[in-house]
Amino acid sequence: MAEREREILKARLSAADLAKLERIGHPELDKFVAKYIELCEPDKALVSSDTPEEISFIRGEAIREGAERKLKIEGHTIHFENYDDQGRDKANTKILVSKMVDFGLDLNATDRTDAVAEVEGLMKGIMKGHTLFVRFYTLGPRNSVFSIPCVQLTDSAYVCHSEDLLYRNGYEEFTRLGREAKFLKFVHSQGELERGLTGAITKNIKLRRIYIDLDGQTVYSINTQYGGNTIGLKKLALRFAIQAADKEGWLAEHMFLMGVHGPKRRVTYFSGAYPSLCGKTSTSMMTGETIVGDDIAYLKIVDRQVRAVNVEKGMFGIIQGINSSDDPLIWKALHNPGDIIFSNVLAPEDGSVHWQGQDAPMPEKGINHSGDWTPEKKDKKDKKIPVSHPNARFTLALKLLSNLDPELDNPQGVELGGIIYGGRDSDTWAPVEESFDWTHGVITKGGSLESETTAATLGQEGVREFNPMANVDFLSIPIGKYIRNHLEFGARLQNPPKIFSVNYFLRDKQGNWLNQKTDKAVWLKWMELRVHGEVEAIKTPTGLIPKYEDLKSLFEQALKRDYSQVDYLKQFTIRVPESLAKIGRIQEIYKMIADTPPIISSVLAEQKERLLEARKKFGDYIAPEKF
Q1: Which pick of 284, 446, 520, 536 has the fewest CB atoms within 10 Å?
Q2: Residue 627: which of 534, 506, 545, 521 has the closest Cα?
C-alpha cells in the first residue's frame, strides 16, 4: 500500500477495516477507496468482509437511517424514494467516452474528461454526515470463468442490503485473486437527505447524475436512491460486460435463464430476451419449470458448447399486476417470511403492503410514494395517484422461490439448448416459431425485434420500437458491431442453440386476443421438444411452426385443455402483408446504422422474396396446411 493511500485510509478506517484491505493487497483498490474517501468526506467508512454479522449490521443500518422500515411479516421491509426519483433517469444516464463513436442509435454518450470533472466536482463533500460502506461482489458465480469482481462504494445501507440480496458476496474472491483481480468500480451517494413520512429521501434530484465511464471502468451515481440508478451491478454494469464480451468473444445479454422440463425428467435450458412488459418474468417463472435467472445472462463457449450463467442471485422485479392466480410462485414468496424489500408500494397502518393489480381489497389509506394516501388523492396535474407507483418493485434472493433451479451457482453455468426472442406484436409474428438456422435467427428474430408501446406506459399505443435482442438501452458498442458479434459467436459452433421467436400479444381484426396467458406453457414445451428433434415442424417463408396435432397433444398434457383447429389457424396463419411491412421497417433502420453486416440485407431480402413467392401462390393470408 502506497504511503499516501495508507495515511488517508488510516485516518478514516479502524485498524480492523484497514487490515481487511491489506489482506487483499491490491494497490489499485487501495487507491480507489482512498480517493473517494478523501473526495466525498464521509464521517466514517466501514469495510465489509461479508461476515453474517457485518451483513446483519448493515441491514440494520438501513432501518436506523430511515431508508427502510419493518413490516409485519418477519424479514420484510419497505423503502421509498423521492417522488421524482422512482425510475431510470435516461436523460442523466450517460456513457463517457474519450472518442465519440457512432453507436447507430442515440445512446447519450458524452466526453469523458468533462463529465468526470463535473461529477467529481459534485461529489466533493457529498457524504458529510454519512457512513461510507466498502463492499465486494461478483457478477456471476464465484471462482468461475464467468466471474467479474466488483467493488461498490456507497453511503446507502439500502443499496448494500439490495446488493446482498441480488449478488454473490465477493470479499473472499478478492482475497483469492489478490493483486491479480481485474475489477469494476462503482461509486454511489444518496447526497443530501430530507426526512418525512416516507423516510430519509434524496433532496437534490436536479443534481442527479448516473455516469458510466467506459475507459475508467467506473460507474458514478449521485443524488439518487432508485435501485435502477444506484444498484450499479445491474444494468449499469451490463455496459461494461458488453464491452468485455465484444473484446473476448462472448455475449452479455438482457436475458432470463430457465430450465424447461421435458420427457423422462429431462431439463433443457433456454435463455430469453423480451423488452419491458412483454412477458419476460412471467415466462421465466412459468409453473412447472425452474428459474435460473430473470434478467441478465452471460453466454460463453466452453468445450464447444454454449454455456450460460445468471449474473445475479436475486430478483429486482416490478410488482405491479402480480396476483395469486397469474403469478402463484412469486405471490407465495411475497407472502411468507424472508428477506424482502418492497419499494414504492402502499404501506397501510397494519404493517402490510398493497400494490396495483393485487387481488386483495383496496385499503382506505396508508403511506405510499406520494406520502399520506387515500384513493381520491390527486397529483399536480389533477390525476389520481395510484395505490403504488407503476415502477414499484420487490427485491429478494432467488432462494425464496420454490421453483429455483439447482444449477444457479454452478461455476460452469448451464448448457444452452435454445434462445427465445419475444416482443409485443399485435399482427405479425406467430405465437411461436423457430428460425431456419443461427444466422437467420439472429437477423430475423433477435436483430429484428420490435415491441409495440402501450397507452398506459408511454401515452401512445401501438408505436413499434426497434429493440434488437431487447438490449438497445444498455449497449456500449455500435449496433452493427453488436449484431456481428452474435453472428460470429454462432459461426464458431458446430451445433449452436436453436433460436425461436414468441408473441403473446397477437390479436384478430376486431382486436381480440388470440392467445391466453397460460398458452406460453405449451410454446415452451414445443420448443423443448424441437431442441431434441422429437417433433416435426412446418416450413414457412419466415421460419418453422408447429403442427396442429403436436400442439393439441401438448395443450392436453400441459394445461388439460382442448385446443381447436380454428384457434390454430387463427394463430399460425402467415400474415404476408404485415410480414412484408416489418421487413421494410427493419431494412430502413439498418440502412441508417453504420457498419451493418452486409448479410443482414441479404437475409432480409431472401425472406421478402419467399413471402412474395408464397403470396403469388396462396394470397395474403396463408393457412399452415398450404405449406
Answers
A1: 536
A2: 545
CA distances, 201 to each of 65, 391, 523, 569, 576 (Å): 10, 17, 44, 54, 53
Give the type of residue at 365: K
The answer to whether the beta carbons of residues 604 and 462 sit under 8 Å apart is no
257, 292 contact by CB (below 8 A)? yes
The span from the CA of 176 to the CA of 199, in Å, is: 39
Residue intervals in the chain for CATH 3.90.228.20: 251-313+408-626
CB 279 within 8 A of CB 422: yes
Secondary element (H or E) of residue 237: helix 235-248
H or E stretch at 193: strand 193-196
β-partners of residue 212 are 95, 219
Cβ atoms of 210 and 236 closer than 8 Å: yes
C-alpha cell at 438: 443461427
CA-closest candidate to residue 270, choices 393, 432, 113, 157:
432
pLDDT in tens, 431-468: 999 999 999 999 999 999 999 976 444 445 678 999 99
Q: What is the pLDDT of residue 455?
A: 46
pLDDT in tens, 340-365: 999 999 999 999 999 999 988 999 99
Determine which one of 40, 150, 160, 278 is catalytic: 278
Closest alpha carbon to 590 in 451, 448, 423, 470: 448
Distances (CA, A) of 550 to 149, 360, 501, 541: 46, 39, 18, 21
pLDDT digits (tens, 9 = 90+) for 234-276: 999 999 999 999 999 999 999 999 999 999 999 999 999 999 8
Which cell numbers hold the place of 530?
424441437
Q: What angle do CA 156, 159, 164 make, to 5 degrees?
A: 130
Query: What stretch of H or E contains 283?
Result: helix 280-284
Q: What proportions of the chain, in percent to the nearest 5, are helix, strand and coil? A: 35, 25, 40
CA distance 206 to 272: 36
> Rounded to an integer, what distance in angstroms lies between the CA atom of residue 40 and that of residue 36?
6
Contact 544, 436 (CB under 8 A): yes
Scored b (16 or more CB within 10 A) or e, 54-71 reads bbeebbebbbebbbbbeb
Burial class (CB in 10 A: 0-12, 13-18, 19+), 100: exposed
Which residues of the chain does CATH 3.40.449.10 include? 3-67+91-233
Write the pLDDT tens digit of every residue in 165-190.
Answer: 999 999 999 999 999 999 999 999 99
Please give the grid coordinates belonging to residue 420. Answer: 427465445
At the top level of CATH, which class does the domain 251-313+408-626 belong to?
alpha beta
Among 420, 507, 430, smallest CA distance to 461 is for 507
433 - beta bridge partners? 501
Query: pLDDT (tens digit, 9 = 90+) per residue, 273-302?
Result: 999 888 898 999 999 999 999 999 999 999
**Is the distance from CB of 39 to CB of 187 less than 8 angstroms?**
no
Tell me whether residue 278 is one of the annotated catalytic residues.
yes
State the CATH class of domain 3-67+91-233.
alpha beta
Distances (CA, A) of 292 to 28, 143, 256: 34, 18, 8
pLDDT at position 456 is: 42
